[in-house]
Design brief:
- The protein is mostly helical and 131 residues long.
- The protein contains four helices and no strands.
- It starts with 5 loop residues before the first helix and ends with a helix.
């Protein structure tokens, strides 16, 4: 039972709901906290700059993850067979989610640095020279 709602924890909407409340609480903390910690401000600013790249890249990465999920699951089962670590398969979904989020942030960072920023400079230079 999660916050008195057993149907939420077992649904496909559990992780988006938790992430929504995390982002909402971080935004409220950022806005109304009397002393804004500089690390939190930098952290939220960093993810704010990556937000468009994350928005653009999450669907293709999600499809790639779904496409390779059976192969990844087979490798995980094979490694459990040889290593015998006793890890249960539900943890595999958590591991896959963490790998997905790490990969998404890394790809978004690369996209922001090497695609968005140069394009912004090019567009700014192109339109500022006309005036």
């Amino acid at each position: 039972v999660w916050l008195g709602f057993p149907q939420i924890q077992n649904s496909d909407h559990f992780i988006p709901i938790v992430m929504f409340f995390f982002i909402l609480s971080a935004a409220v903390f950022e806005r109304f906290h009397p002393v804004q910690p500089p690390r939190l401000h930098r952290f939220l600013g960093y993810f704010g700059s990556l937000s468009f790249s994350i928005y653009v890249l999450h669907v293709p990465l999600l499809y790639a993850t779904k496409r390779f999920y059976p192969a990844a699951e087979a490798l995980f089962r094979l490694s459990r067979y040889f290593l015998g670590d006793g890890t249960s398969l539900p943890y595999f979904s958590l591991i896959l989610l963490c790998l997905f989020l790490i990969t998404l942030v890394l790809l978004a960072d690369l996209s922001f640095r090497f695609v968005e920023t140069p394009l912004k400079r090019l567009i700014k230079r192109k339109f500022s020279s006309r005036t």
